[in-house]
């Protein structure tokens, strides 16, 4: 069979690992139409074609499956290995998942479709665990006229910790030298290099940074550095996997550079001096939380101070620190959350909210960028979080009326947030439910101003992927957080899941909730982390997106 197949909307690309000890788990929600805001009832059922290629892009084998919106597909590499036979299975390569409609998709469907919003885990029997949402995909409408710029990549290169990027190519050859990278150390010094090899269709590229930048560990001087770059790619969207091989494998996905619209001062005055970035904080024996601030999007060549507010699980304000960190333009700022606590050694669970400090600026960046870091002795899990207007529809509508003089700005942001009341916001993520891997879910009821005072309810639905589900109804005080392992929300797990080790968690609420996922490998003590994936709501002919997850 030739790839890509007919009636194609797009496809996702995965780094495939399966050697009997190291495994890959891919999770795909069947709600493809909803997640991509496609025309209603245009995709009642999609055909997924799974094709496996070796690292050089040579086809190995494929299989197909039809999926309906209420289904979830879990692809376990260990089970595929058993089905295919040990002799036929490659240990590493590329899994391409193509999404096809029954008939030729309309131009509107082709333009709206983005990707599967899939999830991927790499885990080993020895205790490695990396979980993230997959941001490498085939984009049919991408003509290659505009390169992808990489950002939001933080690394620490030492003799013990080796960093590499994983980039997967799609159906078109990428030219030799099309990927240019640069590393900036804590002194602001820069190393530049070009990745020379041509990228064949469906090939796998593991780019070890110490090979591309000889002397990288010495250059970093034991301090964290940032990586950026430009990729002249055709036919694909890619935020590279950023992998670290230390005591255990760690990883997250990098970002791509956006041309964000700057925001005028009245906007930030209205929303608490900036859009907060609420993220779960966990401080306990062997686990700590660090904040990395970046300032790379947009064109404001300025530094901006950032305030921090730390809330406990009940929603109580533990500390408010003005001008905690300086978000330096094209530089990295790091802050340990423990330094905000009255007792740095105490255990703590809650969330941190970040906003630009109160100082006169005519304009602010369109977003606050924060890369959260959850560290153990075994490794580090990182999660990129952008700011948003959490639970502020009433304020937002009033603000748009006041901002009529800035019509273009107001129209731009008016398309970005849901303006209707009583919408059901929805987000999802895969969770592990059986030892040795157990997932924790963190749900935060956050608001953009310190005076936020709304108590909200939410529904957590645990789905087995075949139509069966368990329901948990929760309620959160203002700024409160529910943080618990899955089996604490659902003591009766086996009633619906049986021996199934994973499930899909879906959270719904009229509120914009900040939702995080952490998974813990009991054998090694490793954590993985990722935010939930935002879905959409349909109301009177339009799709609306929540602030985020």
Commentary on this structure:
The chain is mainly β and 549 residues long. Helix content is 11%, strand content 46%. The chain is built from ten helices and 40 strands. Strands 30, 31, 32, 33, 34, 35, 36, 37 and 38 form a nine-stranded antiparallel β-sheet that branches. A hairpin with a 2-residue loop joins β30 (425-434) and β31 (437-444).
Descriptive terms for the model:
549 residues; mainly beta; nine-stranded antiparallel beta sheet; six-stranded antiparallel beta sheet; 40 strands; 46% strand; globular
Short overview:
This protein is mainly beta and 549 residues long.
Shape: globular
Discrete helix count: 10
Structural class: mainly beta
**Number of E strands:** 40
Segments where pLDDT lies below 50 for 5+ residues? none
Radius of gyration: 22 Å
Helix content: 10-25%
Average of pLDDT: 91
Strand content range = over 45%
Q: Give the end-to-end Cα distance, rounded to a whole number of Å.
A: 38 Å
Biggest sheet architecture? 9 strands, antiparallel
List the helices and strands and how they pair.
Layout: E1 8-17, E2 22-29, H1 32-35, E3 46-53, E4 59-67, E5 72-76, H2 77-84, E6 92-100, H3 107-112, E7 119-124, E8 129-133, E9 136-139, E10 148-155, E11 162-168, E12 179-184, E13 190-195, E14 204-208, H4 209-212, H5 216-220, E15 225-231, E16 236-238, E17 241-245, E18 249-253, E19 255-256, E20 263-264, H6 265-270, E21 279-283, E22 288-294, E23 304-312, E24 317-327, E25 333-336, E26 348-356, E27 363-364, E28 369-375, E29 380-386, H7 393-402, H8 407-414, E30 425-434, E31 437-444, E32 456-463, E33 469-476, E34 481-485, H9 486-489, H10 494-497, E35 502-509, E36 514-521, E37 526-531, E38 533-534, E39 537-539, E40 542-544
């Amino acid at each position: 069979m030739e790839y890509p197949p007919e009636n194609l909307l797009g496809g996702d690309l995965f780094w495939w690992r399966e050697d009997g000890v190291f495994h890959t788990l891919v999770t795909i929600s069947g709600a493809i139409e909803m997640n991509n805001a496609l025309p209603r009832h245009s995709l009642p059922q999609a055909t997924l074609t799974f094709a496996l290629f070796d690292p050089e892009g040579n086809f190995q084998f494929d299989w197909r499956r039809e999926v309906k919106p209420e289904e979830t597909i879990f692809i376990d590499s260990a089970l595929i290995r058993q089905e295919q036979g040990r002799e036929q299975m490659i240990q590493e390569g590329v899994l391409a998942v193509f999404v096809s409609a029954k008939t030729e998709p309309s131009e509107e469907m082709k333009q709206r479709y983005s990707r599967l919003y899939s999830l991927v885990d790499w885990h080993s029997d020895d205790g490695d665990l990396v979980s993230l949402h997959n941001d490498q995909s085939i984009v049919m409408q991408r003509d290659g006229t505009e390169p992808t710029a990489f950002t939001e990549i933080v690394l620490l290169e030492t003799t013990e910790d080796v960093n590499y990027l994983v980039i997967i190519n799609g159906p078109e050859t990428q030219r030799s030298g099309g990927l240019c990278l640069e590393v900036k150390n804590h002194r602001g010094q820069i190393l530049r290099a070009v990745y020379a090899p041509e990228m064949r269709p469906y090939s796998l590229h593991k780019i070890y940074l110490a090979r591309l930048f000889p002397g990288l560990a010495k250059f970093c001087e034991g301090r964290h550095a940032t990586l950026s770059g430009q990729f002249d790619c055709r036919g694909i969207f890619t935020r590279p996997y950023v992998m670290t091989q230390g005591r255990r494998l760690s990883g997250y996905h990098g970002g791509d550079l956006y041309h964000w619209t700057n925001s005028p001062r009245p906007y930030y005055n209205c929303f608490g001096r900036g859009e907060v970035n609420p993220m779960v904080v966990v401080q306990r024996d062997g686990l700590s939380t660090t904040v990395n601030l970046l300032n790379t999007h947009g064109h404001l060549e300025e530094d901006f101070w950032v305030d921090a507010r730390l809330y406990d699980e009940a929603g109580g304000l533990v500390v408010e620190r003005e001008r905690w960190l300086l978000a330096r333009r094209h530089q990295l700022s790091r802050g340990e959350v423990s330094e905000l606590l009255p007792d740095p050694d105490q255990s703590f669970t809650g969330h941190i909210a970040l906003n630009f400090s109160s100082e006169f600026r005519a304009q602010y960046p369109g977003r606050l960028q924060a890369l959260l870091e959850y560290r153990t002795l075994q490794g580090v899990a990182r999660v990129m979080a952008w700011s948003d207007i959490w639970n502020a529809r009433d304020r937002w509508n009033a603000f748009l009326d006041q901002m009529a003089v800035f019509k273009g700005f107001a129209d731009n942001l008016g398309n970005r947030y849901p303006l209707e009341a009583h919408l059901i916001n929805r987000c999802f993520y895969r969770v592990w439910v059986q030892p040795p891997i157990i997932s924790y879910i963190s749900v935060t009821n956050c608001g953009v101003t310190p005076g936020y005072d709304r108590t909200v309810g939410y529904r957590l639905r645990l789905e087995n992927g075949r139509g069966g589900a368990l329901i948990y109804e929760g309620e959160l005080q203002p700024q409160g957080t529910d943080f618990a392992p899955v089996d604490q929300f659902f003591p009766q797990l086996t009633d619906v899941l049986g021996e199934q080790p994973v499930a899909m968690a879906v959270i719904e609420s009229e509120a914009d909730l900040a939702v995080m996922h952490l998974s813990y490998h009991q054998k090694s003590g490793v954590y993985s982390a990722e935010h939930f994936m935002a879905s959409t709501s349909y109301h009177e002919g339009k799709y609306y997106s929540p602030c985020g997850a």
